[in-house]
Amino acid sequence: MDIKKETIASLHDKLVNKDVTAEELANDAINKINANEKKLNTFITVNDKAPEAAKKIDEDGIKGPLSGIPIAFKDNIVTNGIKTTAASKILYNFMPVYSATVLERLEAAGAVDIGKTNLDEFAMGSSTETSYFDTTVNPWDLSRVPGGSSGGSAAAVAAGEVVAALGTDTGGSIRQPAAFNGIFGIKPTYGRVSRWGVIAFASSLDQVGVLSKRVEDSATVLSAMAGHDEHDSTSSEKPVPDYRANLSKDMSGVRIAVPKEFWHEGTHPEVLENVNKALDAYKKMGATVDEVSLPSLKHAVEVYYVLASSEASSNLQRYDGVRYGFRAKDVKNIKDLFVKSRSEGFGDEVKRRIMLGTFALSAGAYDAYFKKAAEVRTLFINEMNDVLKDHDLIMGPSTTTPAFKIGEKVDDPLAMYMNDILTIPANLAGLPAASVPAGLADGLPVGLQIIGRPFDEQSVFNAAYALQEENKFYEKIPTALKGED
Amino acid sequence: MISKDEILHVAALANLKFEDSEVDSFVSQLDKIVNMESKLSSVDTTGVEPTYNMGDTNTVFREDKGIRTQTREQMLENVPETDNNLIKVPTIVDKEDDE
After folding, report:
1. Which residue of A301, A320, A372 to mutate against B (max B Cβ within 10 Å)?
2. pTM
3. What are phi and psi of A366, to 5 degrees?
């Protein structure tokens, strides 16, 4: 079966009509993953027990929309009894004894965990190149990165291995790979989804979201996993709408704000051309488009790298070689055990972030870096919220360029960090944001970014759905996969 | 400009150690990044409250009642070295190493 042409709803119909069984779907997905793996490297661990779990669902009978649907999980989402590594040597052998709330909720809805996708180590990166388990490759061009950090999830969806995959987004890690792979990806409002069981990177920015070829599939998955969780006190008690049932492509009267700073001078002209085309389409559908200004945007990368690194340095203190994961050998005392396990277990990018964060939090630097960044964050949040007072959505490109070459930026951390300038704002302000395919630039996918008001994921889904139904980008097959099937 | 000594001090705080051959490239990379971050000083934040946390809930209470989570055996499953159902680590107080 060609999963690239299927949706959760079409698979559900086939399951209900017994044209296919959940067990067959699971086996199909595993075969597809294994066939692609040498070329794309989208997974760290394939769940061999998936067909067995799917068989049980067949026996119990297909129920809700996710019943029997294979879904992939980014490998920083802990899964009881399935290795969870965060793509780091320091967790290379970690076998969780409980599951993340998002996984439990999706499994309770009948979804089948097909395996764990590749990512940048601890989700720190924009290319999946910092993974301890090798980089994932972009199915549109095998010489290019899939983006990151949810690069494995994005490439797995684009390649038709699964209809949907979970990712996490701290500074753009769902939206940027979604854009690079020509698929949809949404980072919900901070607090919309429980972070319990999600390996922490930056706790005030991290959020779990969904990547799928079709907007409606992410809507289905998000409704099933969102909502308050007693294990995560930052998860919101606001009721979760049925995003799929409420999907509407009616854009009449929708007020769209376009920050002029998003039209960054370094942005690829064809990226801007595609985004402008999308905005014109919205105007034709009856939306208004106003230019606005976010003057603090020029400091967003600075704020982000101070805060995210500081939170990371704190969150990653727990990796010490004592209770789980990699433990260094030949140590003379406990301090030596900590230092050696961490120095041998973390990769360079993770060490860089820990160092940056430790520096920003250290005596003498705290006020000028950590506190200052937190203050500028407040200014930035106020600017975003001001714009959203009289606009329903903020739009712009998801990325400044299409997917770049493997190896192109890996040795230049600053150039890599600048990649995130357009996606960071939504994380700093905790707003829901998505990337939806807008077209092709030099044969590579371009994403339109849609940012909404807090807890108004519905408007984000609706606008993305309207564009999807207009440009039908999902019909396009990734270039490097043509001639398959 | 961040000095090599500062970097080594921060590394010690973070329980990280760098090979001599990698210190210099780390110093120059971190210097560039910190330099970028220093641009924040140009922003006037007089009277602006910092944002450290997100989320719309404050302190959360629950009934003071025991709940069952993992068993001792489960919690020890991932421990690299155990002895008698305890976590085994190297010497904590070492006479030769009184730092």
Report:
1. A372
2. 0.96
3. -55, -50
User: Hey, which residues of A are catalytic here?
Assistant: 74, 149, 173
Nearest CA in chain B to A349: B26
So what's the ipTM on this one? 0.92
CATH code at position A22 = 3.90.1300.10
Number of domains in chain A: 1
Indicate the average pLDDT of chain A: 96
Residue A255 and residue A283 in contact, taking contact as beta carbons nearer than 8 Å: no
Q: Which residues of B touch A373 (CB under 8 A)?
A: 37, 40
**% pLDDT > 70, chain A:** 99
**Which residue segment(s) compose the domain that A162 sits in?**
3-251+457-481
Cβ pair A448, A231 in contact under 8 A? no
From chain A, the residues in CB contact with B13 under 8 A are 358, 362
Query: What is the spatial distance between Cα A419 and Cα A424, in angstroms, rounded to a whole number?
Result: 10
From chain B, the residues in CB contact with A335 under 8 A are: 15, 97, 99
pLDDT at B95 over 90: no
Could you tell me which residues come within 8 angstroms of residue A314 by beta carbon, excluding any fewer than 6 positions away? A357, A361
Q: Cα(A11)–Cα(A29) distance, rounded to whole angstroms?
A: 13
Tell me the average pLDDT across A4-13.
96
Q: Do A336 and B40 touch (CB under 8 A)?
A: no
Please name the member of A317, A369, A381 whose beta carbon is closest to the beta carbon of B51.
A381
Any bridge partners for residue A40, and if so which? Answer: none
Q: List, for residues A362-391, the tens digit of each pLDDT value.
A: 999 999 999 999 999 999 999 999 999 999
| Residue A264 lies inside a defined structural domain of this protein | no
DSSP letters spanning A109-158: TT-EEEEEE--SGGG--SSSTT-TT----BTTBTTB---SSSHHHHHHHH
Nearest residue to A466 (alpha-carbon basis) of A309, A250, A220, A218:
A250
Does any domain span residue A211? Answer: yes
Interface residue of B28, B29, B33, B76 to substitute, partner A, most A CBs within 10 Å: B33
Q: Which chain A residue is nearest to residue B33, measuring alpha carbons?
A: A414
Angle CA A353–A91–A171, to nearest 5 = 35
pLDDT at A125 over 90: yes
Nearest to A376 among B45, B78, B90 (CB): B45
Chain B: nearest CA to A204, how far in angstroms? 6
**Using one digit for the tens of pLDDT, what is the confidence trace for A182-211?**
999 999 999 999 999 999 999 999 999 999
- A481 has pLDDT over 90: no
Report the residue from B37, B48, B56 with minimal CB separation from A379: B48
Residues of B in contact with A359 (CB under 8 A): 2, 6, 10, 30, 34
Give me the residue from A306, A379, A417 closest to B45, CB to CB: A379
Residue A140 forms part of a structural domain? yes
In a domain, A219, yes or no: yes
Half-sphere exposure (CA, 13 Å, Cβ side) for A33?
30
In tens, the pLDDT along A38-72 reads 999 999 999 999 999 999 999 999 999 999 999 99
